[in-house]
Amino acid sequence: MKLLYVLIILTINYLLVKGYGESDKDDYPNHFERESHNLINLVRMFPQQYVYSYMKGWENLGVMFSQYKATFPVYYDNSVNRIARYHSYDMGANNYFGHGDRNSQSASDRIQRAVPCSTYNSENIAAGKSTGIDTNNQLICDDPQFGNYCTPDGSGHDGHRKNIMNPDLKLMGVGYWYASNSAYKYYWTQDFTGCTSNLPTNPIYSGYHTFYNSNNPLFVLSYYSNSLSTPAMYIVFVSGSVENVVPMRRTYGNDKFAVYTYSPSTHTPCGKYFFATTTENHKTYRYPETGYLQIAKDLDSCKSWSY
Fold first, then answer.
1. Which residue of 123, 213, 218, 303 has the smallest Cβ count within 10 Å?
2. Residue span of the signal peptide, if any (predicted)?
3. Does residue 249 lie within any of the structural domains?
4. CA-to-CA distance for 184 and 177, rounded, in angstroms?
5. φ, ψ for residue 125, nearest 5 deg
6. Residues 156-176: b if buried by 16+ CB within 10 A, e if exposed
7. pLDDT per residue over 120-152, tens digit each?
8. DSSP class per residue in the chain
């Protein structure tokens, strides 16, 4: 009954999301979940560049991404987000670590209930890391001893990396939960699905910030379109009625397949911002499509999205 209740609430709240990139009224996705998704897209699109730029301190990096090649980004899905967070909550609240939940549901069962259009699903779980980027790196490295010595592609111990780089997966949701009385404290679930029905049409697949080896945020955005070229990308900081438009740097890629970044020397905690671009056919896209992202650093300072 508990799972059925969660799924009913999941469906109701999903309908309250008005535009792609928005959080619902219960803060799905939250700061850590956005950070994880956004950086998953970066590693999918530019795996080698990601490894040597964002995995400082991890060892044996050269054995990764010989078999798993660059692929397209994935959209975020609020329904999958809810299923993923529920599983992270279940692991933390009941002090276990595994794909099967306390209701005897498998990962595939849970994901298919959330997104019935797909029977092709996969799940990553992790524990012990407190941020999205650290957890992503733990999963990418896939050290079977839970250390920082990365395992080679095709070794049989690289299943998390294989899921992350799977080109047949189109949607994902990330679930984060903190349980102070549990063994690992921090619990993470990444659920992926190959569903292609009713996908968003925004070529900005994700955009957010991370605090990587710095007290200031690094803003990262993933853009992909098979047909729409864009010459430039902007981040817009909002304070009251004032908008400060700042061009982003195309760090990797081209007009149709790119990651953009912006690294400021200072920032306003909880400051509002959004991303925008105008394609060569003069169509403007915004992310999030409604409201504003906020420069959160944790779950206590402010929410990741606001009107």
1. 213
2. 1-19
3. yes
4. 11
5. -125, 150
6. eebebbebbbbeebbbbbbbb
7. 999 999 999 999 999 999 999 999 988 999 999
8. -HHHHHHHHHHHHHTT--STT---TT-SS-HHHHHHHHHHHHHHH-HHHHHHHH-TT-B-GGGSSSSS------EE-HHHHHHHHHHHHHHHHTT--SSS-TTS--HHHHHHHH-TT-S-EEEEEEES--SHHHHHHHHHH--TTSSSBPPPTTSSS-HHHHHHT-TT--EEEEEEEE-TTSSSSEEEEEEEE---TT----SEEEEEEE-SSSSS-EEEEEEE-SS---S--EEEEEETTEEEEEEPEEEEE-SSEEEEEE--S---TT-EEEEEEE-TTS-EEEESSSSEEE--SSTTT--SEE-
Question: In this structure, are 169 and 255 located in the same domain?
Answer: no
d(CA 304, CA 218): 15
- Residue 189's pLDDT is 98
- Tell me the whole-structure pTM to 2 decimals: 0.93
Closest CA to 44 of 66, 71, 63: 71
* Distance separating alpha carbons of residues 156 and 153, to the nearest angstrom: 8
Distance, in Å, from the CA atom of 20 to the CA atom of 127, rounded to the nearest integer, reads 28
CATH of the domain at 94: 3.40.33.10
Span 190-208, pLDDT tens digits: 999 999 999 999 999 999 9
Q: What percent of the chain has pLDDT over 70?
A: 94
Same domain, 187 and 226: no
pLDDT digits (tens, 9 = 90+) for 248-265: 999 999 999 999 999 999
Give the pLDDT band of residue 16 (cuts 50, 70, 90).
low
Give the residue from 193, 214, 245 where a domain finishes: 193
Number of domains the chain is built from: 2
Rounded distance between C-alpha atoms, residue 130 and residue 140, angstroms: 16
